[in-house]
Amino acid sequence: MKQSLANIELLEGLSAVDLEALAKRCRWRSYHGDEMVLAHLDAGTDVLFLTAGRLRVSLYSSSGKEVSFEDIDAGKHFGEMAAIDGRGRSASVFALEPCTIAFLSSRNFMDLLGQHFVIAQRVMTVLCRLVRRLDERVFEFSTLTVSNRIHAELLRLAGGNTEKQTATVSPAPRHADIASRVSTHREAVTREMNVLARSGIIRKERAALHILDLPRLAQMVHDVLGLQPDEIP
Fold it and tell me: Could you give the CA distance from residue 232 to residue 116 in angstroms, rounded to a whole number?
């Protein structure tokens, strides 16, 4: 297991000596695909650095329904909210593929923020982005139909840049994954994706989803929200 934090975005700019010292303070662990990394309301307060692999952040209802929030790629960090406020984990996290994760104690994490203000600024930016994204989701659930929520999710997957005409999402998202993010069922996503395909807005292949008309997709969302295409959240 390679124990290096060199690819972690949050730590960009730290010297090789500082990165090596920080890596030695971490507890390292590998995970198999589909293995649980964190459980909702878990009492742990470590900050986690994903150095290899891919993760998914979700919550599950008492009936077992999954609500997916985001996927985390290698180079990202997570778990900072519990490190800051000492409360239980806000969601569950599980591995989508084999992963390598470094666990840094909350005490060492707070020391890191105190020693490097630029890293503290990055953490604040990440938390502000999270609040804004949650605001957008609440607004969408209150104002958009299921079809419009699917359109909005496709825009997010494409990066939300409507200055481009097209975008490719790879790997192609599963219909069940989109459904869990927009609070609907897989069949509704399949129906709407077929409508979009017949309209020439998307084309799905085995390995990728091609969005062929980003401005048109954006307009479909913003016509409902009363916004202009260049006001994508």
Answer: 33
C-alpha 70/C-alpha 177 separation (Å) is 10
Paired tokens of 130: 């999270």
4 is a domain residue: no
Specify whether the CB–CB gap between 33 and 95 falls below 8 A.
yes
Two tokens, residue 179: 């459904």
Total number of domains in the chain: 2
Take residue 77 and report the two structure tokens written for it.
């960090």
Same domain, 122 and 203: no
Strands 47-52 and 202-204, by their bridges, are unpaired
Q: Torsion over CA of 117, 52, 61 and 139, rounded to 10 degrees?
A: 50
Tokens (6 digits) for 84: 């800051």
Here the CATH number for the domain that contains residue 148 is 1.10.10.10
Would you say the pTM of this structure is higher than 0.70?
yes
Per-residue pLDDT reduced to its tens digit, 26-73: 999 999 999 999 999 999 999 999 999 999 999 887 777 788 888 999
